[in-house]
Amino acid sequence: MDDRARPPEDILPAYFFECWVPEAVAADPERRRRLGETRATVVFTLLGEAGGLFTVEIENGTVRGREGGVETPDLAVELDMDTWRNLNAGRLSAPEAVLKRKLRFEGSFLLGLKLHLILG
Question: How much is the pTM?
Answer without folding.
Answer: 0.90
